[in-house]
């Protein structure tokens, strides 16, 4: 390789290397966001059964267990993303990136169209409580009505999770495009 060819290759490689190096915090955040997504073989499996009216006490127990088991990992991921915001703000597109992360972390305001991870987890806890209350009702007619509300709540929650997962996927596409 001649000196000119080497210099040309270096001129092409240095900007790409510099971009890859400076994009590291953004890519790390995008990988963390993927960890927050809800998966079909995770809690979403039991939520969908409840939404279809096919949920059992066993499904509710699995959902409760999965929610509890994932608590510390999710909290760590959320804390890491929250901590990364300062470094991300220094990037050229940092304000946009941080706004996306904030929306994905948010406590789930019912005024927004996408609940954040914390809000979705809170709603799962509320759904579990709603199910327990419905199951404790002795009157069959009232119990049936309350279980139908549980199904409706689970369906709305599944829709919110789908919106959350779509927002997370859009963020990842933006970062890795």
Task: Describe this entry's structure for a reader.
There is one protein chain. This protein is mainly α and 177 residues long. It has one domain (25-176): Four Helix Bundle (Hemerythrin (Met), subunit A), CATH 1.20.120. It is 81% helix and 0% strand. The chain has seven helices and no strands. It has helices at 3-22, 24-36, 43-51, 57-89, 94-105, 117-135, 140-176. Helix 3 (43-51) packs across helix 4 (57-89), helix 5 (94-105) packs antiparallel against helix 7 and helix 6 runs antiparallel to helix 7 (140-176). The chain is elongated, with a radius of gyration of 22 Å. The model has no long low-confidence stretch (mean pLDDT 85).
Topology pattern, helix = H, strand = E? HHHHHHH
Largest sheet: number of strands, sense, barrel closure? none
SS summary, helix count: 7
The count of β-strands is 0
Measure the end-to-end span: 32 Å
CATH class division:
Mainly Alpha
Specify the CATH architecture: Up-down Bundle
Domains counted in the coordinates: how many?
1
Mean pLDDT value:
85
Structural topology:
Layout lengths: L2 H20 L1 H13 L6 H9 L5 H33 L4 H12 L11 H19 L4 H37 L1
Helix pairs in contact: 2-4, 2-7, 3-4, 3-7, 4-5, 4-6, 5-7, 6-7
Quick rundown:
The chain has helices at 3-22, 24-36, 43-51, 57-89, 94-105, 117-135, 140-176. By secondary structure, it is mostly helical.
Observed structural traits:
81% helix; mainly alpha; Four Helix Bundle (Hemerythrin (Met), subunit A); 7 helices; 177 residues; elongated
């Amino acid at each position: 390789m001649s000196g000119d060819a080497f210099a040309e290759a270096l001129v092409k490689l240095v900007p790409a290397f510099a971009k890859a190096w400076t994009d590291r915090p953004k890519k790390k955040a995008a990988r963390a966001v993927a960890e927050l997504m809800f998966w079909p073989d995770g809690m979403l499996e039991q939520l969908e059964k409840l939404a279809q009216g096919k949920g059992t006490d066993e499904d509710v127990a699995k959902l409760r267990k999965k929610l509890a088991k994932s608590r510390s990992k999710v909290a760590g991921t959320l804390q890491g993303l929250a901590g990364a915001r300062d470094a991300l703000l220094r990037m050229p597109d940092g304000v946009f990136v941080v706004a996306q992360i904030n929306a994905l972390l948010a406590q789930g305001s019912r005024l927004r169209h996408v609940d954040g991870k914390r809000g979705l987890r809170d709603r799962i806890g509320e759904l579990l409580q709603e199910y327990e209350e419905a199951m404790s009702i002795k009157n069959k007619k009232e119990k049936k009505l309350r279980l139908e509300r549980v199904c409706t709540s689970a369906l709305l929650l599944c829709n919110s999770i789908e919106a959350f997962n779509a927002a997370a996927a859009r963020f990842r596409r933006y970062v890795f495009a």
